[in-house]
Amino acid sequence: MKGSLRLYGAALKNTLASRLAYRIDFFLSVFIMLVFELIIPFATFLIYRSGGAFPGWSFGEVLLVQAVFLLAKGVVNPFFAGIVWNTLIRVREGTYDLLLIKPRSVLFMTLLTSIDVEDLGKLLGGVGVLVLALSGLPAAAPENWLAFVLLFACSVCVFMSFSFFMAGSCFKWVGNSRVYEIFDCLSAFAMYPMSIFSKGLRVLITAVIPLAIMAFIPASVLLGKSVEYLAFALGSGAVFLAAGAFFWTRMLRSYTSAGG
Amino acid sequence: MIKIDNLKKTYVTYRRGERFLDVLKSMFVRKKVLVEALKGINLIIEKGELIGLLGPNGAGKSTLIKILTGILYPSSGKVECLGFVPWRQRRAYVARIGAVFGQKSQLVFDIPPIDSFHMNRAIYGIPKADYDRTLKRMVEMLDAGDIIGKPTRGLSLGERMRCEFIMAMLHSPEVVFLDEPTIGLDVIAKESIRAFVKEMNAAGVTFILTTHDLDDVEHLAKRVVVINHGEIVFDGAMDTLKTHLGTKKIVRLSTHEPLPLLDRPGVEMVTRVSDYEADLELDLAKIELNQFIKKIGEKNTIRDLAINDPPIETVIKKLYS
Q1: How far is CA B23 from CA A116, B18, B31, B32, B238, in A?
Q2: pLDDT digit string (tens) for A119-135?
Q3: Does any domain span residue A240?
Q4: Are B236 and B257 in the same domain?
Q5: What is the model's pLDDT at position A204?
Q6: Which of A124, B60, B239, B255 is surrounded by the fewest CB atoms within 10 Å?
Q7: Domain limits at B179?
Q8: B106, B121, B151: residue with CB nearest A98
Q9: What digits encode the pLDDT tens for the residues B58-68?
């Protein structure tokens, strides 16, 4: 464990040093990532300001749902989500060879080489929106905060599992450069209160594909609202992560390398 | 040390025609082709050997190396390297091997090689004292003291390859796989790499060298394995490989008068440099050397005569065909 942490530290240092070789591009990228994350909350603000609303939800409450989504994404993207592009590129070029000749778990090596420090802008954006949302809402009880932390961890797990599924598909579906856009479209459902969707869709995005746990359920707990399928969503978050990691590992066997 | 028994690898690839219509058709239907990359390789490599693995493009060399390094699974057959089955006990096995790929860099492009070395130290869990000692030795051997602190992107290809070798040797591997390590290098850089490999081999490290550069093989390998169409077509000493052309010699002949017609049994024109100079291939089984010189001397005055063995390329081409 100590060795793995030391290795992660070395990888983080190298990634940062590598990215800082082009400082202007780095700072500009972080800034753009931050701004880009604020587009949906800003659009929501415009909807509420013009008199529109999501029924039963105030602007602050919707903003909290979006803040939780952006925060979880901000945690996952710099440290885990890069696995998708890393796998996509390495499979196409055959440079996975270089990870397979290292005496470490291939998944761990892939994560080490996937760290994307400019995505810290997304984390900053998530933190910023969360602070803004919380400032306009009544303070939650400590037990709600405790439940939120647990559920937020589940949210991160679901984000990670999606990364594993997308990356795993790149072993078979070589050069699948649109995979992340598919995920973006799908995960957009998670940025809004579930109550705006039909019951069938709610069941689908809570119990089957656990999108609701990415933001809606943790935010609802913090808001003191009652939540449907809570236990099921919690369980499916853990199962989804295990399934994602298993899928990635199985798909690794499809790796055929490339060229000479 | 390495035992390969009836190793086979088959994979699926897709083919299409070159016409525009074929490209359009390939959107819906692709012709599946089964490729037999390895057709039953048997090979034993002893500790401390330095083997040259030769073969034309698509012969199966890289597939063999990738199976031996635990990167690919074979379709069938057995492999035992250092007591491990590479693809089943990958992690334990790769800790004891090293690899240099001439066309795939292990260094991080935007930072100095020394940072990549530190990363490798953490990956392999090399104790600090061992790491410092090995790094110092490698840097001295490859004269890389001035370059390991510069960003990799600023290094020449030769400098980068020297750093790739350091990277591959830091954990003191027992077997090192070299896949075209001198590709694109100038003569000086090649010599530096070759001297390093020779010295490490003398220290007991086993090397398996895949290359298209026959000079590499001639300079380094005592044993040569030639692969073609997924099969071993030659396995033996370098000198034995050279004798494959039997009794042939290459003669560079210069005369004071225009060269006569040389179409006689056992003499084949390789290159006619000018009317007065030519490279000829003599088959000494059909014409003796002194008989050939005598015949030429009857009508011409010989200005110069150089007799050499056929180049190794000729032998390899003959084996490939």
Answers
A1: 37, 7, 12, 15, 46
A2: 898 899 999 999 999 99
A3: yes
A4: no
A5: 85
A6: B239
A7: 2-242
A8: B106
A9: 888 889 999 99
